[in-house]
DNA sequence: GTGGTCTAGACCACA
DNA sequence: GTGGTCTAGACCACG
């Protein structure tokens, strides 16, 4: 639940990613209610406006829905989680492969690189 | 030599990355003179100040040296390229592994994911 | 808060030095918020970009931290001030001693020279 | 005889300083002929234009004289060395005292600082 | 309102 | 010609 204030990725997207990851890891489920903007702001120690933006962004992507007066909920649409997992996995892999190719590494070296770092800490 | 003007990564860092990649791929060598700030600005179609910043950043990282009135050169220090390659590779791999772990995937699934995407285009 | 526009030392570094000096003289404390880039630009009568550069440089040295949208703050890390004072003092002394030695003066003559000039104005 | 290519002090002045120091240390005497611009450029590994400028500057200060077709010589005027030594010493001391005062140090601390660093290497 | 990036254009010292 | 600094002014994402 830590934000990197110096990353080029905006904080509001970092927080969205964290929620996506929790969904994919089954720590969160379709239909679950997310903390209120205020509550979430306290938990993550960022400005409520930032959380507002996180929620808007997730709504735009169809991952959550806001119900007036009730709060923000994970969309119940079938397959939402699998879709998300599929999408995130693809993005991460594609980005990885592209960067490694730019470094001139072969597929074998990529696999090797992962073996070497797979034991690394969570940062 | 194309920049993505809409990426969240600043142009001046994108250009630095491109130079790093060319170094690692042996298209550029220690001791080589980089194009002058103005020349590079024309090639990359950005403002000279942006290139200035690229070069400053690379100097800060010890990859290049500037000699007043003469130009900017790749550092001649032995091992600079391997060091750089090592560092860039590590960064990319660690980031990948971390993200995949956050998606709850095992090492096997990571390797599989790469196999699936390794044939993808260069961007 | 005056800058010397004709010094060979860049303005952005002169301003950084002034802030360092204020920190060391306890006129500024860890955790303090510095004036915003624009505000500082007005105070020092230079362009905001110049202040931006001052702040970047200080961040690079670990003296300040910027929090996006909030401002720039003196780093809270313990010992930051003593470290800085120590470093600045060392730099000044070493440079002095080196130059005096190049003039062929003995330690006694150095001490004497200081006695003679210690009453001089602050510039 | 080393130049610092990254100092804010221009190379041509660094070289002038080195000559001044040699004069003051009696390694060089009034009436001595300095190496030709070309020769000096080779010795110091800088561009001949830079040496040209060094010589011009020293001439402007009355330390050297150029005699057409013969070369550049240290001025023979009486007292030139003592004057120079006096001036350089004063400049170095004043600058030192000013900087130390800006750091909020007392005269005692200055003397102490020198004691501590007087044994330090020549850089 | 905050910092960050970028452009355009200028001037300078240096080589 | 080279890099370095500075200004002016703009736009942007973020908080």
From TrEMBL, chains A, B, C, D:
In the UniProt record, does the keyword Ubl conjugation occur? no
- Which domain of life does this protein belong to? Bacteria
Q: InterPro entries from the xrefs?
A: Tscrpt_reg_HTH_GntR, WH-like_DNA-bd_sf, WH_DNA-bd_sf
Q: Does the keyword Iron apply?
A: no
The HTH gntR-type domain is annotated at: 9-77
May I ask which residue range the UniProt record assigns to the signal sequence?
Answer: none
Sorted alphabetically, which Pfam families does this protein's record hold?
GntR (PF00392)
What's in the keyword line of the UniProt record?
A: DNA-binding, Transcription, Transcription regulation
PROSITE patterns from the entry? HTH_GNTR
How is this protein named in the record?
Transcriptional regulator (GntR family) protein
